Every structure is written in C-alpha cells, then in structure tokens.
C-alpha cells in the first residue's frame, strides 16, 4: 500500500494535495494593533492550567488586524495569489509558564483555509471571519500615507455579525508596535477523543515564535475601539477598561516550527 | 487559573465560543452520488499502512455532493442558518483493515468553518471549496421534481479553478444510493509535530459512522462526469475508467462519535 | 463594425456574454414573509411623485426572504447551478398610482450578479447581501417539516453588519402568503446623467408582475422580528409598530416583461 | 409624497441608502497591465455602430488587474474599508468615433456591489468575479519589491471557472503603463425596454475619463498570459497573437463625470 506524503492532510503519493506545505512559512504584511486593559479576571479565565496570569500588567490585551501575503520556500503561491493573500484579526493576552512570560492568542479569525490549517498546527484557534483594514498607499486620493495624521479603520465580522471596529489616528513614531504580542506564543493544541465522552486524544502545550522578523518604522496613534457581542463569540467579554494605544507597522516574518512544552492529560474539556 | 470548557477551540470559561458543539450532530440533506471505476493502483496509493485495498471492486470511487442543514442537540443553529447550512463535495474509496471493509474519504471540500472543524475531529481532510448542485422543488418552473426524467447538475471548484462537473439524468428507483460510501469510515487523524522535522505528534486510525440514518426513496440515473486538474488538487488523478451509475437521495443522519482503531507511529509523512 | 447581440451587457457578436438572458425568466423557490405595520409617514417618504400612499392599510410592510433556483427558457443554468441559485431578502410596501394599488420594493439584497442585473431591468434597487433562511426537509434531524409547529429562522446582513433577524413559528394553513406583495409592482428605473450635476438621463415608472404563478399550500405563523441600523441602510427606519403575521409558501413563477407607466423628468435626485 | 434623494438607488428621504454616492469618486491603487495583439476582426465585432476600429494598431488589447481603495469626498468609506476596497480585472480595446481615438472596456469583473453600480453609471459592463494580483511590499519574505527582477502573478475567475492567468517579470523602468487604456473611454449605457421584445429604453454613447491622475514610476516587464474559455464569457475569443508587454504602476485617480456623445436608437440588441 501507499507511502503517503504531505505535511498536512490530505496525504497522497505525491504530497501535492496537502492543504499546507512543510515549514518554513514566509509572510509579508501590515499589522494594525490596538492595545487596551481589561479586567485581569477575564484574561485568567482563558488560561487553563498550567498557565497563570502574567505578573506585569496582567489585564493587557492586543487586538491585531493583519493583511498578509504568505508563501512556502518555493514561493510558487506568490504567482497564484489566491493561495497567498489572506487577512486576519486576532486577540492576544499574556500569561506565565514556569517563570517565563508568554503571549497567547485566545481568539482569531481568518479568511482562507490554508490559514486555518496553519492555526491547527500552531495552536491558533482559527475561525472564518471577514476582516478589513485601511491600506496605506503612496497616492492619497483614497488612502492614508504612513505619516502622522494618517487615519486607518479596521473591522471584524463573523457569522454575518460585526464583532469589532477600530479607528487609529497616527500621531508619531514609536519604538515598537506594541508589547502584548511581543513574547513567544504559548498555545494549546488539542484534539478531542473520537469516542463519545472521551477525554482529549491529544493535548499539548507548545511554544512558538517567528524564526526571523524584519520590521519597518513603527507608528503610534490614538484609538477608538468598539466591541460587539454575538451568540457564538466572546471577544466582547474582554471589555475595554482603558486604551493603551494603537500601532501600525509593516513586517516580514519567517516561521519555522516551535517546541513542545508539555503533554497534558487532556481532560480539561470536561471540566 | 481557568477551567476552560468547550468541545473544540477556542475553549473558554463558558464554552460558548467553541467552533463546534459536543456531538451528537444532526443532519438533513440531499446527496447526489456518482460512482465510477478508476485504476485500483490510484486508490492503493491513497491507503497508508495498515490499510489495504478492498477485495471486491477495489477501483470503485464515489464522488458525492451534499447540500446540508445541520445542528446540535439544542437545534439553535437552525434559527441562525448561517451556522446550519453548508455544502460539500467529497471523494470516497473503499479499503480493508483487519479483514473488514471500510469506506474512506480521500478528498473533501466544504464551505463553512464549522464543517472544517468537524472534519478535523472525524478525520475528513476538508478544504474550502465552492460546490453547487441542482435542487429539486415541487414547482418545476426552474427545478426538477424527484422523478424519472429529472436532470441535476453538480459542480466543484477550489482555488478559483473548476475541479469537477457532473450531470445526472434520473431513470428510475434504486434500492440504494450507491455502495462505495456504504461502510463505516476508516480515517486517519494526524497532527504534525510542532518541531522542525518532527514526526507526527498524533497519528491515529479511527472508525466512524452514522449512529442513525433515515433515507428516502433512492433514485438511479445516467451520469456524465468530467474531472479537471489543478496544481493543488489530485481529484483528477482518480481517472474515470468506467461509470458505475448515479444516485439521488434525501437523508436524515445523526453522528455521535466513533472509536479508535489504532495509534500509529506517525512517521509516514516523512516517507 | 459589429452588430452586437445580447439582452444585457456586455453585448458581443454572439450574445453569449450577456449577464442575463432575454426574458422569460423562470423561478422555483421558497418564500418566508413577515408582514408588519410601520408609521405610514415612513412609507410615504419612500414614494416619489407621482406615487401616493395606498388608501387601505398604508403602513403595511412585507419583509420577504426568498431561496431561489432560476433559469432562462433554455434551462441550461440548472445544470451549472452557480448560475441558477441565489438568495434574496426584500422589503415591499404598497402605493397608489392613477387610482390603482401597487406593490413596490423599496430595499432589496441578493447574492449573485445576475440577480442584480435583473433588478436593474425590473427596477428592484438591488445590493449585495448575505441572506439565510431555514430550509424545510422531509427528514427532520436538522430541519422543520412544512407543518404546524415548524420553526424557521431568517437573517439578513450587508456590509458585514446584521440588518434583520426573524423567527417564524408555523401555526396552521393560510389562504395566502401575505397581502402586501400581492399587487403588480410599481418601480422606478433611473439612470443618472453622465455629466457632473446632470439630471437623470433616464427616469421611468414601470409596472411589472409575474406572467404565471404556481403556489403550494400557504402556511401562517407567529413571528419575532428584529431590525438593526447601519450607516448605509435604512431598513430599520421602517420601525415595527405591529406584527401582522408570518407566512411560508413554495412557489413557481414566470416573469416575462412589464410595461412602462410614465416617463419622468428625472430631476428628483437633486430634490 | 416624498422628495427622494440619492445619486443611485435606492433613493430615500435622506439619500443615505444610495448604493453609490454622488461623484467625484477617489481611487488609490495598483495596476498590473498586460498588452497584446489579437485579430482586429475580434475587436471589430465588439464595436457597435457608430464606433469603428482605431486606425493605428487596431488589434491591441489591454488586460488590466487593479487593486483599489476608493471613496467619496467625505472619505468616510476609508474608515469602514469593506465599503472602500475592491479588486477588478478588465479588458480594454481602442476604437474611433468622429475622428478621435477612444479606449473602450469590453469585459470587466469586480468583487463589490458599489463597483458594479459605478459601472452601470460609467458604462463598464461589470460582472462579479474573483481577481487576485501579487502585492509588492517593503519586506520581501513573501512579496516582490517594486524593482527589476520582481515577479507578479494575476488571476481572474468567474462562475467558479478560471478565465485568465498572467505572470509579469519586471525588467526595468517604463515611460508609461501601457497605451491601450490611455484614451478617454467611449462606452455605451443601455437599458433594455421593459416590455417583451421592446427596443432599448435608453441607449447612449458616453465619453468618460479621469479628471485627475497621479502616477508613480511605471515598470515594464516580460509577460506570460493564458486565457481560458467559459460557457458565459468571451475573453478567450480575444486570442493572444503577440504579447506587447506588461506594466506595473501605482496611481491615484479622481473621476468626476463624463459627457454624452450620442443618443442611440437602441435597436442593436435585436440585430
């Protein structure tokens, strides 16, 4: 019988059908970040053991929009850009594990299947959504230029409901693009057991981060942010108590795998 | 820290955000099935060890379009049907394991994220696609009625490329809706290891099937089928050597878990 | 030079590219109708001269969801159903012209380009939207059957914002599927002048209606309806003062043109 | 009764619902242009009287992909970018009218309803499609930079079928971004009569062009182009006989109306 190949499913004799290629994965894109503080108890309830709240500023949240082009080492996806371009919006908090601070994505929406599959691998809990963010352009007839005074809008919807709206007014240069998403990611990868009522068949805490990052000048700005409730989403439960700030930055990133931090018993889902 | 809940990700304190609810899962829908024979070697190359070719008619393939409405036990998704309706097209072959014949889905495309997540759980290798199938209706101004003479079309596309087109002309009643998809499913559930070059972190062969099926009168018909190649898909590699027949049937199904057949070493992907 | 052919644009030598074929147009589908009363002044402000409010029940509004399959006389679209199936939600009020009562569609959203083009021709002011309505099915695992006790949901969104949600609980048979959409349609067809500040280049009041209708048993039910505001939509301005009732009906329809009622001066848009 | 407002439908008391605002319209975006020569007879058959073939290079065709952000004078769409961003691919030929050379769009696909509505106004025969073009980015992990050696892909699909694929390899600077789309546009605006078999109710030849254009450095390159047939599209009928060249350019544009060249009898569609 067959020796099937392919990094992800469906595995075939050639490996050509795999929904995603083997890493490294390459990204070029624009990040619009809004940072704010919520009740740390709302962050804590998203941190299953063995994770704990970060010691410093434990209620800090980053809501990040990203407009990406991505590819494998072959770069062939760049010439068929339906396989290369995607948008996402995601929510990052911080946490601690064995004395180290990690970032952790607790909600994320994307608009392509290959992005969902990467999330399965990396532990990002990806759903489909509709994300939009204003693009900068050299000609300002219908676009901001990346400079003080520029105004960007960003929206997120899923299930035909709007979940978030942000407006960012750039005020000046920044030393960074925010701090909440600045640590390695600590993510769970879980697969429920196939039998009725089974514990998880696989539950693992992994660490992951970019293996290379290039970043342009970061810009800081003032932010308006509105979150909306939905029967199936809990973004709005991370209520906005205080805006920290907004950021815009263009980046190039390479991701090339992570490492396993802990195998878990996987009974959490029945808790 | 939190006791997170939820059958699938993202797990939260309430469990409300989970992309899919705990089974059982309920389905009502219409199945348009095309069965044909291909070179058994092309089937064999999609069957990783320990699976082997089915003894009887090993080159039989079913290409099935399904137009579904689905829900959890709460039935709440039926009142917000963006969360309930989805379409899919999938390719089923047969195989053998420990002396028993199984069906096996080797390619599948769906149009909703909750359907992808169910596939992750059940071992269906789901990608996003665009599927269309003619609907029967009591008024024939722009629809066939379910009766001899009715004609149905079905198409599949992914990545902005058309992958399959079928036309089914109903000729009469049938005792069943095809035989290729008539066994329990034998599916792999795999999760690549998070480290560069790692073997699979999880690799499992599972068995799964409906816990309850209601089915209406099955209809048989003549079929035209065309498959098209794509850089990222291998459906067309299952070349059409001989058409077996076409079928149309309305069904109601309940799915409530499966069972693990074998834990695998998971090194296949490097083969 | 060319003798270009085609009912609609783009016109070519063969006519094959036309976005829509020449009528008659054929439809089979399911209608979920919610009727309610709003302030008649809100209806009146949507009726440009020479239209006036209907004498009887002038504040009556119908919000209708339709799940259609449609085709031309060739029926070829039925075999390539991406060209045949579409969904819509639309708002109908009544009005009077020269002593006769007409229905009039004041807002409508569809999900295919050919449906938009038909609207340009028929005077329906179509935008793109995302519409979902529960489907009945013979197997009730995940569907209502068409009978008392059945419950249907319907939603409408546009621009990534939800605009309307309805739930219909069937209580029994009805003699009709509602009265607000029961008259010939009186629609404006307008094309702004191409020059800056020009009056309309074309402005016409037309009458249109089905040339043939088959309809199944109509069902009546209780309704919950919620409308939501949006910066670009005014559906919610037709506030719900009193629910009249809800209806479900399957229909087959043929449309084969209308007639011009009046050429207008077309200066209304500058009013 | 009402004094309805709004540049386009639906017209309401406030004008807020209009699918498109009153011009001027503002655009910032990137143009990827492929120019080639086809049989001039294939161009001629798309030019209804009173248009004739351009004298010089009458078989020249431009296939252009555009990735746009657009807005009205209020710029409010830029903060809700689902209303601002859209993509398109369009085919331009040249023609002559009363001794002057015009450009003319003969096929075009877009991905937003507001873009379709602008086309109705400007005489672009817009359908919905799926268009993708590689984006340049300052970080080259997954993007070309705008410089010699950069490679861009562009694809077009409609009706779940791929219609065109191009690859552009930049070789150096260019004085312009192509010549085929360099003239004012000569477009027909037609509205079929509402009665069965009626002649066009409105048929007009209009001239239109940008009222202001800013353009960055144009880049020239080598091109591979493939066109694919479809039952509903005739792009592939404009066969590629000789590639002229490819171009990439970023632009900012303002459009503020055109002028009517001729009222036509409108009987062409029955020819």
UniProtKB/TrEMBL annotation, chains A, B, C, D:
**Organism domain of life:** Bacteria
One Pfam family in the UniProt entry: ADC
What would be an example GO MF term here?
Answer: lyase activity
Q: What is this protein called?
A: Acetoacetate decarboxylase
Species for this entry: Actinomadura viridis
List the top taxonomic levels of the source: Bacteria, Bacillati, Actinomycetota, Actinomycetes, Streptosporangiales
């Amino acid at each position: 019988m067959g020796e099937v190949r392919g990094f992800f499913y469906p595995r075939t004799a050639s490996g050509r059908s795999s929904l995603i290629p083997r890493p490294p994965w390459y990204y070029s894109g624009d990040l619009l970040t809004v940072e704010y503080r919520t009740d740390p108890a709302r962050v804590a309830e998203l941190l299953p053991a063995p994770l704990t709240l970060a010691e410093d500023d434990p209620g800090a949240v980053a809501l990040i929009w990203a407009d990406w082009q991505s590819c494998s080492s072959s770069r062939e996806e760049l010439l068929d850009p339906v396989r290369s371009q995607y948008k996402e919006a995601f929510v990052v908090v911080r946490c601690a594990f064995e004395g180290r601070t990690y970032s952790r994505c607790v909600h994320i929406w994307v608009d392509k299947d290959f992005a969902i599959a990467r999330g399965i691998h990396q532990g990002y809990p990806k759903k489909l959504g509709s994300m939009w963010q204003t693009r900068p352009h050299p000609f300002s007839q219908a676009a901001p230029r990346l400079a003080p005074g520029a105004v960007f809008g960003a929206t997120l919807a899923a299930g035909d409901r709007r979940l978030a709206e942000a407006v960012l007014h750039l005020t000046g240069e920044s030393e960074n693009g925010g701090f909440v998403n600045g640590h390695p990611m600590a993510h769970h990868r879980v697969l429920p057991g196939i039998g009725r009522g089974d514990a998880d068949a696989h539950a693992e805490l992994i660490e992951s981060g970019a293996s290379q990052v290039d970043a342009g000048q970061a810009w800081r700005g003032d932010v308006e942010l509105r979150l909306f409730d939905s029967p199936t989403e809990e973004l709005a439960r991370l209520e906005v108590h205080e805006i920290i700030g907004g950021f815009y930055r263009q980046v190039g990133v390479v991701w090339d795998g992570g490492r396993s931090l802990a195998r878990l018993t996987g009974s959490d889902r029945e808790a």
